[in-house]
């Protein structure tokens, strides 16, 4: 019995490898005509974590599986808790930039984070989409896909200055203020950590 | 595989009612042999079809069959001689498996030895094939090991665990169920493994078929691409997209593996006469050679589901003419071997554009992933309404009468390719060293052609890009702009194209669903 079940799981594993191997360029056929994105399907497989993850729908484009098929800005646009961020990214003209950059990590402030933000700063940023807003948004992006194991530490952002993540396990805080409320969400080109505060670069 | 305690054989004998021994033994033997053969076939699907115990032993048996018996078989069974041979081998294996299984109930070692012999026969057959190499022994060895594991596992289910009190009647009822479930699981596993191996080995057969294909020279060649069609800027997409980098979008989880020998195209539906073509007949037609840029409707702004290749194929229009298309048939439905359907306006195929049944891509037979042996191409239309891979059927129909695969899922029935442009270099969020930089990319408007590309840096006025020489209206054009990137910091680059009708690409953004994205590609870079 033991041997048989071993053989069986090896078989199943074999079939899974096959499925992944041949599906690397085809994906959820219900959302994409022709069925596909060419994202690296095998990149990271561990699960998202955090209290706010439960708000994510179980299926459809806004689910974790759905988001994994789309590039990050498209994925975010299917997630209702990120609608303010998506508006800001669109205003700043950063949609293609975020979608088109391979292997990045995005700290994505949820709607509540923008709501809690100082109104004057928010208005100033929104009034200057190519300047302050772009600076603030690119401060939320780090080159490379950070796994939870690599998350703690100081990271160079694409804005130029650094941010610092403290914590461990499933409990992380960015720059001592913004908590990760749902982390390790995979999209086709980025790993996303949803945070409950908007990060401000030091010189902004 | 730990050896059982020495008492196991004896315990098994005692626990099984003599009247059941035959049936249990038969299941034990057949299930173990089936797992051995099924797994062997699966492994052969990976290392090579000829190494399958089934194929290797069958081939060896054919070689060893005396000439008189072969002639007799061919005369008696005709083309079915090989089926009869394989059937004969199967009968022998099943009988041997039953016999060994029955003996194994008492003496498990005999069953294991039987599997070892089966494995050795497979290894010998595989290694004595003319083109064999050492890995060809793997399928039979791994199959025999899996068979042995199955035999041991099922055999344990015949024997109650030693500490149990001796309650033979009750024990047998429970054991029987456990044993039968185990046997059924083993047979299911064997069938799954065998079927998967079969699917995989078809891929080898198709690979071999592809390697043997010779496409005749096109009677209407494309000639070399014009000088200056490729601007050769670092980071810019090549004019011809290499096959290995060409985007692939389809619904096939397992790539269909079709041999040219097995390929047929049926033209039917609203036609005066049905046509049936095989591959030789198709490539014997007057072939054309064309450069065509393909685009997927799912391509996002700035996305890479677009590629340009040189194709050789048989023009579609004359074929439809031979079939005699009913003028009311406004939709040409094409079907791939896996049942996927595509609907193309009949008018788009017959209006003089280079719609074809392509057999060659960038100088080689179509790769399996791109539809070997034959795919359809219609310049100017998104792939999901024109570019059927592994095509096997053309049915003249109407848009009213039939909704193809993606249309049933809400995508538009009509989908001409929209004018688009893309910045290839610099990459988004790139750090551009201050000084002279090059912004370059591609633009496409199949059937219309690209007339102008403009680039905007931040809020400066649009500046016109230099264009590569146009190959045809059906191919993309490259463009470049020299940029004095002197101002450090973040800059937004944006591009837009104008087609030869004078229409400029809209800035209004819509997502790919349901008939292709619009909007102008823009990205942010940092000058340092």
DSSP, total strands of chain A: 7
Mean pLDDT of chain A: 79
N-end to C-end Cα span of chain A: 65 Å
Helix content of chain B: 25-40%
Biggest beta sheet summary of chain B: 5 strands, mixed
Number of strands of chain B: 19
Radius of gyration of chain A: 18 Å
User: Approximately how much helix is present in the residues of chain A?
Assistant: 25-40%
Low-confidence parts of chain B lasting 5 or more residues at pLDDT below 50?
1-14
In one word, what is the shape of chain B? Answer: elongated
User: Which ranges of chain A are low-confidence, i.e. pLDDT below 50, for 5 or more consecutive residues?
Assistant: 1-45
Overall geometry of chain A comes to: globular
Separation, N- and C-terminal Cα atoms of chain B: 63 Å
**What is the H/E string of chain A?**
HHHHHEHHHEHEEEEE
How would you portray this structure in words?
The complex is a heterodimer of chains A (204) and B (528). With 204 residues, chain A is of the alpha+beta class. Chain A has nine helices and seven strands, in the order H-H-H-H-H-E-H-H-H-E-H-E-E-E-E-E. A seven-stranded mixed β-sheet of chain A has the order 2-1-7-6-5-4-3. In chain A, strand 5 and strand 6 form a beta hairpin. Chain A is globular and about 35 Å long. Chain A starts with a helix and ends in a 9-residue tail after the last strand. In chain B, the strands form four sheets. Chain B has a five-stranded mixed β-sheet with strand order 2-1-10-5-6. In chain B, strands 3, 4, 7, 8 and 9 form a five-stranded antiparallel β-sheet that branches. Chain B has a five-stranded mixed β-sheet with strand order 12-19-18-14-15, with no helix packed on it. In chain B, strand 7 and strand 8 form a beta hairpin. The radius of gyration of chain B is 31 Å and the shape is elongated. The chains are: A alpha+beta (204), B alpha+beta (528). At the A-B interface, helix 1, helix 5 and helix 8 of A face helix 2, helix 7, helix 8, strand 18 and strand 19 of B.
């Amino acid at each position: 019995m033991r041997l048989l079940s071993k053989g069986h799981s090896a078989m199943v594993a074999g079939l899974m490898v096959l499925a992944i191997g041949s599906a690397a360029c085809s994906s959820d056929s219900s959302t994409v005509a022709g069925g596909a994105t060419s994202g690296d399907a095998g990149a990271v497989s561990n699960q998202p974590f955090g209290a706010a993850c439960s708000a994510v729908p179980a299926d459809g484009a806004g689910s974790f599986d759905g988001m994994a098929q789309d590039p990050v800005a498209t994925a975010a646009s299917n997630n209702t808790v990120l609608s303010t961020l998506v508006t800001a990214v669109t205003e700043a003209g950063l949609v293609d930039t975020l979608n088109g950059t391979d292997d990045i990590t995005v700290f994505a402030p949820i709607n509540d984070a923008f709501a809690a933000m100082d109104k004057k700063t928010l208005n100033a940023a929104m009034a200057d989409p190519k300047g302050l807003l772009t600076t603030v948004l690119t401060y939320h992006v780090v080159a490379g896909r950070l796994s939870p194991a690599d998350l703690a530490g100081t990271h160079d952002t694409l804005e130029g200055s650094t941010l610092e993540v403290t914590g461990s396990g499933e409990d992380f805080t960015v720059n001592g203020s913004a908590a990760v409320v749902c982390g390790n969400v995979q999209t086709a080109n980025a790993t996303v950590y949803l945070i409950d505060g908007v990060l401000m670069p030091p010189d902004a | 595989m730990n050896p059982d305690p020495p008492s196991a054989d004896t315990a098994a004998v005692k626990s099984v009612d003599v009247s059941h021994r035959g049936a249990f033994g038969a299941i034990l033997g057949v299930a173990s042999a089936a797992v051995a053969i099924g797994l062997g076939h699966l492994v052969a699907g990976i290392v090579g079809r000829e190494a399958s115990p089934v194929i290797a032993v069958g081939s060896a048996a054919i070689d060893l069959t005396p000439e008189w018996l072969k002639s007799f078989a061919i005369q008696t069974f005709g083309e079915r001689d090989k089926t009869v041979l394989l059937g004969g081998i199967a009968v022998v294996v099943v009988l041997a498996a039953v016999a060994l299984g029955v003996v194994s109930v008492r003496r498990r070692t005999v069953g294991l030895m039987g599997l070892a012999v089966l494995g050795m026969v497979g290894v010998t057959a595989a290694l004595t094939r003319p083109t064999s190499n050492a890995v060809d022994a793997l399928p039979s060895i791994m199959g025999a090991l899996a068979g042995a594991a199955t035999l041991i596992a099922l055999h344990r289910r015949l024997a109650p665990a030693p500490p149990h009190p001796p309650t033979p009647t009750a024990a047998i009822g429970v054991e029987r169920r456990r044993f039968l479930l185990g046997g059924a699981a083993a047979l299911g596993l064997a069938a799954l493994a065998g079927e998967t191996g079969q699917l995989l080995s078809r891929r080898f057969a198709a690979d071999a078929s592809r390697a043997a294909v010779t496409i005749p020279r096109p009677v209407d060649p494309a000639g070399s691409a014009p000088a200056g069609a490729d601007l050769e800027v670092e980071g810019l997409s090549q004019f011809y997209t290499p096959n290995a980098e060409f985007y692939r979008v389809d619904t096939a989880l397992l790539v269909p593996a079709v041999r040219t020998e097995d390929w047929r195209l049926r033209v039917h539906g609203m036609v005066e006469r049905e046509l049936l073509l095989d591959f030789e007949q198709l490539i014997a037609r007057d072939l054309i050679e064309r450069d065509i840029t393909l685009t997927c409707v799912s391509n996002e702004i700035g996305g890479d589901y677009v590629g340009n290749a040189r194709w050789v194929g048989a023009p579609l229009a004359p074929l439809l003419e031979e079939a005699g298309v009913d003028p009311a048939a406004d939709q040409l439905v094409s079907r791939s071997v896996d049942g996927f359907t595509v609907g193309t306006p009949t008018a788009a195929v017959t209006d003089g554009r280079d719609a074809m049944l392509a057999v060659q891509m960038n100088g080689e037979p179509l790769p399996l992933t791109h539809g070997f042996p034959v795919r359809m191409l219609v310049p100017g239309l998104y792939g999901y309404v024109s570019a059927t891979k592994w095509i096997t059927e053309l049915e003249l129909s109407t848009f009213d009468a039939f909704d193809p695969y993606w249309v049933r899922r809400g995508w538009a029935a009509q989908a001409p390719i929209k004018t688009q442009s893309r910045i290839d270099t610099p990459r988004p969020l790139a750090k551009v060293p201050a000084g002279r930089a090059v912004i370059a990319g591609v633009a496409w408007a199949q059937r219309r052609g690209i007339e102008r590309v403009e680039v905007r840096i931040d809020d400066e006025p649009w500046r016109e890009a230099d264009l590569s020489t146009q190959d045809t209206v059906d191919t993309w054009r490259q463009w470049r702009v020299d940029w004095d990137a002197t101002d450090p910091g973040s800059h937004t680059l944006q591009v837009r194209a104008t087609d030869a009708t004078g229409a400029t690409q809209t800035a209004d953004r819509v997502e790919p669903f349901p008939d292709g994205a619009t909007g102008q590609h823009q990205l942010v870079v940092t000058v340092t």
